Amino acid sequence: MEHRLVMEKKIGRYLTPIERVHHIDGDTINNHPDNLELFDNPSKHNAHPHNRYQGWFPKGVAPWNKTFTTKVCEICQKVYELSPRASEKRRTCSKKCFGKFMSHKMRGNLFAKK
After folding, report:
1. Cβ(23)–Cβ(3) below 8 Å
2. Residue 24 domain-assigned (yes or no)
3. What is the tens place of the pLDDT at every residue in 6-47?
4. Mean pLDDT, rounded, of the chain
5. Residue 8 shares a structural domain with residue 40
6. Could you say which DSSP state residue 78 is in?
7. Are residues 76 and 39 in the same domain?
8. Which domain holds residue 78?
9. Which residues contact 100 (CB under 8 A, 6 or more apart)?
């Protein structure tokens, strides 16, 4: 929601509930005023090509997400990709596995050999 505050400051007024703020480069963390675009209604925002860089870069090599880290889930042993924005401390591939991880951790039998 920070992007809405930045846009309000940029245009000098409050945004209406139907106005949408779009990140031009697709990076939702980049809330620089020059990276934000205002749409006066949701239909115009939905009709907008959200990924202006589509087809310009090989998959996963866009400037804002250059490298993905491959990790193995500690619960189900599934291999998954971790984006640069995700925490390096993440140890599971999904919410379901995270729930199991926390359950085992609370019981104190995490990774116990049987």
Report:
1. yes
2. yes
3. 999 999 999 988 888 888 777 788 899 988 888 887 766 666
4. 76
5. yes
6. -
7. no
8. 69-107
9. 75, 92
Q: Which residues contact 68 (CB under 8 A, 6 or more apart)?
A: 60, 81, 82, 83, 84
Closest among 11, 68, 70, 69 to 36, alpha carbons compared: 11
Asked if residue 61 belongs to a domain, the reply is no
| Helix/strand/coil (H/E/C) assignment for every residue in 54-67 | CCCCCCCCCCCCCC
CA dist., res. 38 & res. 82, Å (int): 31
Rounded Cα–Cα distance for residues 91 and 100 (Å): 12
Name residue 30's amino acid: N
Residues with Cβ within 8 Å of residue 111, at least 6 apart in sequence: 74, 104
Provide the residue type at 35 as one letter: N
For residue 71, the number of C-alpha atoms closer than 13 Å in the C-beta half-sphere is 20
Domain-located, residue 31: yes
